[in-house]
């Protein structure tokens, strides 16, 4: 780490939204050529502080300095011009544009006043090469809206790296959609950037990542700085306690006795992926699917739910084939939690109550009209049942933390009274406490007789949570095996085809 003056200094930064204070006089110092981790539960104020640093929000009090000079960006473009780039957890890409167009968006190279596509492609290739061991992994003309969430994450990171004058790179949960190989490439890139003098502010809920990549850390809780120091001088237990204010027990899978088969797949083949998938999911069981990015895990869940076409094979729910559409699947008691909650899982501009109930209004009708009281009561029940931290059913979902948004997406499935839950990356981007609460909820649902099929990029989570795990490799799903005796290394080797 460099011994020069700090790259960025924040002193007494405060911010309120209306009468609600979000940051209370937070101070922060980031060294040149370092990776500084920021930790905290969802709602701790991390996102607000990041937005202030990136020029998206302005502080109510306090001051910022960048390389010793006053820093008060008027907006995101001004911050980018000063050398500060941010990659938000919820991506900000233009779905209708191509990969290269998104990477150079806002700083398009021009020749004689016209966009230089050649230079744009070269700049995009260089940025993507940093994340792909020297080779472009995505077609530059591919429409971003057609890419997977993980591929979009790579485009977003590449866009931040495409600016040669970047001095401070802010990454908010950058690995939440990445597979193991992409995470390793990202870490190698960050290490190289650090050696070149770039400062990186790294936000993650994954303590193993923090320990691998970060030099120093700061913990926020309830909008206040509660701990900071060198990563090597602290323990994971101390970090968790600082984030939560108390010790958090992360449970492991409970002993369960699965019942009859409620979902069965026989040689299911999708339009592109999966290539072959067979499994049986039983009532009261958690079955995990491990695999690397692009292996076909998400496509499998989408095919089961009827979002993607099944070219061949059979999907049976309680022994019946039935109609394969999302509406029919919900009627059959099958619900899907998308990995992309912002675009597919929630209507962020609507209230908690609307998000919970809008897809099933019949129980709320009174004499043919929607009862606002019934809608409110239904939402209040699930807010209490899942411990959702919100002011009430009328609060807009976009105002809530990521962990609480995820709980709302799960609550909607439970409001539908589904028996089979297809969960795609359910703990993506949520904090330690919320992850533990969601794990506990899954255990409770299984005890009530529901069945859970879960996809996760974090193999330790699958081992801790599931009864059995099946590995998907290049579209082919292997046999499900008991987690007893399995470890992360073995799953990773199988997922990689090693």
Which secondary structure elements does this structure contain, and how are they paired or packed?
Elements: E1 8-17, E2 20-30, E3 35-39, H1 46-53, E4 61-66, E5 69-70, H2 76-81, E6 84-87, H3 99-103, E7 110-111, E8 114-115, H4 117-129, H5 149-161, E9 168-172, H6 180-195, E10 199-203, H7 207-213, E11 216-221, E12 224-230, H8 236-244, E13 261-270, E14 277-282, E15 286-291, H9 297-305, E16 310-317, H10 326-331, E17 334-337, H11 341-345, H12 352-357, E18 365-366, E19 369-370, H13 372-386, H14 402-415, E20 420-424, H15 432-447, E21 451-455, H16 459-465, E22 468-473, E23 476-477, E24 481-482, H17 488-496
Gist?
This protein has 498 residues and is of the alpha/beta class.
Would you give an account of this structure?
By secondary structure, the chain is an alpha/beta fold. The strands form 6 sheets. Strands 15, 17, 20, 21, 22, 23 and 24 form a 7-stranded mixed sheet that branches. A 6-stranded mixed sheet has the order 6-9-10-3-11-12, with helices on both faces. The protein has a 4-stranded antiparallel sheet with strand order 2-1-4-5, with helices on one face. Strand 9, helix 6 (180-195) and strand 10 (199-203) form a beta-alpha-beta unit. Helix 13 (372-386) packs across helix 14 (402-415). The longest helix has 16 residues, at 180-195. The two termini are 36 Å apart.
Which key terms come to mind for this protein?
498 residues; Rossmann fold; 7-stranded mixed sheet; 6-stranded mixed sheet; 17 helices; 33% helix; globular
């Amino acid at each position: 780490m460099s011994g020069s003056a700090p790259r960025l200094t924040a002193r007494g930064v405060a911010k309120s939204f209306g009468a609600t204070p979000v940051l209370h006089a937070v101070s922060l110092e980031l060294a040149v050529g370092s990776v500084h981790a920021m930790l905290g539960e969802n709602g701790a104020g991390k996102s607000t502080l990041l937005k202030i640093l990136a020029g998206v929000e302005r502080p109510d009090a306090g001051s910022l300095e960048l390389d010793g000079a006053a820093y008060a960006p008027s907006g995101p473009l001004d911050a980018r011009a000063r050398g500060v780039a941010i990659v938000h957890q919820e991506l900000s890409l233009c779905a209708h544009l191509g990969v290269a167009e998104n990477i150079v968006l806002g700083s398009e190279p021009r020749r004689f006043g016209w966009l230089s596509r050649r230079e744009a492609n070269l700049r995009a290739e260089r940025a993507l090469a940093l994340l792909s061991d020297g080779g472009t992994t995505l077609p530059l003309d591919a429409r971003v809206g057609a890419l997977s969430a993980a591929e979009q994450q790579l485009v977003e990171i590449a866009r931040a790296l495409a600016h040669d004058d970047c001095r401070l790179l802010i990454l908010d949960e950058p690995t939440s959609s990445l597979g193991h190989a992409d995470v390793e490439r990202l870490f190698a890139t960050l290490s190289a950037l650090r050696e070149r003098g770039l400062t990186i502010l790294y936000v993650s809920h994954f303590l193993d990542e923090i320990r691998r990549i970060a030099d120093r850390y700061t913990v926020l809780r309830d909008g206040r700085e509660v701990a900071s120091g060198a990563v090597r001088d602290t323990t994971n237990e101390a970090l968790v306690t600082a984030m939560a204010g108390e010790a958090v027990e992360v449970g492991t899978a409970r002993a369960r006795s699965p019942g009859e088969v409620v979902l069965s797949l026989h040689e299911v083949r999708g339009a592109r992926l999966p290539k072959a998938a067979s499994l049986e999911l039983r009532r009261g069981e958690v079955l995990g699917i491990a695999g690397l990015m692009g292996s076909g895990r998400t496509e499998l869940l989408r095919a089961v739910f009827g979002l993607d076409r099944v070219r061949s094979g059979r999907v049976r729910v309680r022994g019946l084939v039935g109609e394969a559409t999302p509406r029919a699947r919900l009627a059959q008691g099958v619900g899907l939690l998308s990995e992309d909650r912002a675009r597919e899982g929630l209507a962020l501009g609507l209230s908690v109550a609307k998000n919970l109930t809008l897809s099933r209004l019949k129980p709320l009708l009174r004499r043919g009209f929607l009862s606002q009281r019934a809608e409110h009561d239904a939402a209040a029940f699930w807010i209490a049942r899942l411990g959702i931290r919100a002011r009430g059913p009328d609060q807009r979902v976009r105002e809530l933390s990521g962990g609480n948004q995820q709980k709302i997406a799960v609550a909607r499935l439970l409001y539908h009274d589904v028996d089979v839950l297809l969960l795609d990356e359910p703990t993506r981007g949520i904090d330690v406490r919320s992850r533990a609460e969601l794990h506990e909820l899954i255990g409770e649902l299984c005890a009530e007789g529901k069945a859970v099929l879960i996809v996760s990029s974090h193999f330790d989570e699958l081992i801790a949570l599931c009864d059995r795990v099946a590995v998907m490799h290049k579209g082919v799903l292997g046999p499900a095996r008991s987690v007893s005796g399995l470890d992360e290394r073995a799953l990773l080797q199988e997922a990689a085809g090693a």
